[in-house]
């Protein structure tokens, strides 16, 4: 953790800039899109700082980087969501969750975690269903399935009961859960009812989630360093 911390300083500074400026969402602009995406750009740099060879040779890390790229595009679309780009942002983040799921892998399977995540995802959709109409009835269902699957794969990797967990696997799991909190808050605020301090909750959990998921990509590098030392 100490070795990765300094590489995250630009991300923390960019996040502070976003919250300090707190640009109004009522007047979308390319500048506000840049400020919103800047912390995610810094996470690109964080992963690239580990070297191109590392990203090329480790598919999980490269897929997380690709997910961060689609996330930034999704963030930009959501700046103009009132102009009809909400679905575009939904699509970009759907692709992000597919990439993250692929990065986390299918081993171990952990069907109990999958069942738990299935119950949580189904419950969330059941609550939202009566508020949805038109294409969102199906789009939100698909999106919840994708983020729920991503959450399952992140949770399955922790293996707390078997004492096989690492800090990076735990980071991925917590990041996935925070991502779900962020997106659920968006859904409640967009389709159901105004959520107090919704923007603060959404962005704080979102940036924390992306940082933790980006941190999980360095696990393979840690394992290599350990093997070299031993």
From TrEMBL:
One of its GO terms (molecular function) is alkenylglycerophosphocholine hydrolase activity. The keyword Transmembrane helix applies. Coiled coil: none annotated. The keyword Transmembrane helix applies. Keywords: Membrane, Transmembrane, Transmembrane helix. Its main location: membrane. It catalyses: a 1-O-(1Z-alkenyl)-sn-glycero-3-phosphoethanolamine + H2O = a 2,3-saturated aldehyde + sn-glycero-3-phosphoethanolamine; a 1-O-(1Z-alkenyl)-sn-glycero-3-phosphocholine + H2O = a 2,3-saturated aldehyde + sn-glycerol 3-phosphocholine. It is found in: Membrane. GO terms for cellular component: membrane. Pfam families: YhhN (PF07947). It is a multi-pass membrane protein. Its EC number is 3.3.2.2. The chain crosses the membrane at residues 30-49, 61-80, 86-106, 113-132, 138-155, 167-188, 200-218. PANTHER family: GH04784P, LYSOPLASMALOGENASE-LIKE PROTEIN TMEM86A. Belongs to the TMEM86 family. This is lysoplasmalogenase. It comes from Phainopepla nitens (Phainopepla).
């Amino acid at each position: 953790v100490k070795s990765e911390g300094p590489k995250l300083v630009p991300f923390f500074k960019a996040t502070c800039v976003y919250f300090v400026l707190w640009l109004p969402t009522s007047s979308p602009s390319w500048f506000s899109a840049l400020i919103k995406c800047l912390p995610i750009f810094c996470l690109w740099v964080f992963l690239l700082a580990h070297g191109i060879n590392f990203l090329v040779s480790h598919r999980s890390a490269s897929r997380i980087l690709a997910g961060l790229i689609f996330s930034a595009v999704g963030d930009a679309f959501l700046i103009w969501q009132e102009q009809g780009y909400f679905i575009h942002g939904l699509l970009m983040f759907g692709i992000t969750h597919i990439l993250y799921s692929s990065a986390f892998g299918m081993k171990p399977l952990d069907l109990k975690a999958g069942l738990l995540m299935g119950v949580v995802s189904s419950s969330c959709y059941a609550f939202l269903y009566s508020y949805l109409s038109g294409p969102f009835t199906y789009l939100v269902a698909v999106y919840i399935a994708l983020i729920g699957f991503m959450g399952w794969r992140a949770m399955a990797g922790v293996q707390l009961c078997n004492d096989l967990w690492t800090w990076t696997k735990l980071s991925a799991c917590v990041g996935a859960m925070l991502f779900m909190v962020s997106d659920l808050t968006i859904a409640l605020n967009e389709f159901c009812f105004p959520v107090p301090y919704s923007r603060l909750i959404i962005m704080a959990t979102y940036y924390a989630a992306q940082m933790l998921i980006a941190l999980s990509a360095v696990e393979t590098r840690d394992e290599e360093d350990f093997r070299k030392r031993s």
